[in-house]
Amino acid sequence: MARLIILGPPGSGKGTQAEHIARHFRIPAISTGDLFRTHVRQKTELGAEASAYMDHGEFVPDHVTTAMLRQRLDEDDAGEGFLLDGYPRTVIQVAALDEMLTDRGQALDAALALTVDDHELLDRMLRRAQEQGRSDDTAPVIRRRLELYREHTRPVLEAYSNRGILLTVNGSGEREAITEAAIAAIEGALAKKAVGA
Ligand code: ADP
User: Fold this and answer.
1) pLDDT tens, residue by residue, 2-28
2) Is 145 near ligand 1, meaning CB less than 6 Å away?
């Protein structure tokens, strides 16, 4: 059982890594971006509210995001653990998540940050744009997402670092090697916690 967060700039591969890491720990990977995309596809009210923000690379307002996540964390499969991908993205969301977890008598075990240099990020995202055609993978929108990441999500890393639960893994290189390094770092943190170190 583990309650984990994965952090990293857009294009860092966190969605892919999240799937593999979550499978290893037998917990659901919960991606707020994927949840939003499902709502948009299914044309729900929430999807209608979110899509204009997403298409411009802006953050969806917190009342929408937090309500959606709260609902998802209440599903049975998240009771024993989860790996959050794409949340929290701001220090305000850090506080919202703290509140959700406190309400449930739960706490985070670790926050894993993937690091990739900016040049590689841009390359990867433009490639993904060609392969998958995500509507927010255009050059100006990518730039905006990177800017928001620097401005608002970097401080999230700092917050978890101050709590002593931040793990950092280099996100450049072979997919499998990165997954292995991430799993090893998380297992190390869980083991340390188990002995109360
Ligand atoms: P990326 O990490 O590549 O930017 P995501 O799939 O995580 O992609 O997110 C896509 C979009 O969904 C974001 O640009 C934003 O509009 C919206 N979104 C996802 N998570 C959040 C969040 N925690 N708060 C606000 N908006 C979010």
Assistant:
1) 999 999 999 899 999 999 999 999 999
2) yes
CA–centroid distance, 86 to ligand 1, in Å, is 6
Active-site residue identified among 14, 37, 41, 43: 14
Domain 3-196 has CATH 1.10.287.1700: no
For residue 47 and ligand 1, the question of a CB distance below 6 A is answered with no
pLDDT digit string, tens, across residues 92-133: 999 999 999 999 999 999 999 999 988 888 888 888 888 888
Q: Give 94 Cα–ligand 1 centroid separation in angstroms.
A: 15
Q: What is the pLDDT of residue 197?
A: 60
Give per-residue burial for 93-125: e unless 16+ CB within 10 Å, then b. Answer: bbebbeeeeeeeeeebbbbbbbebeeeebbebb
What tokens appear for 124 in the block?
């990867």
Beta bridge partners of 167: 112
The alpha carbon of 133 and the centre of ligand 1 are apart by a number of angstroms equal to 16
Indicate the SS3 state at residue 154.
helix
Q: Of 41, 70, 89, 192, which is the active-site residue?
A: 89
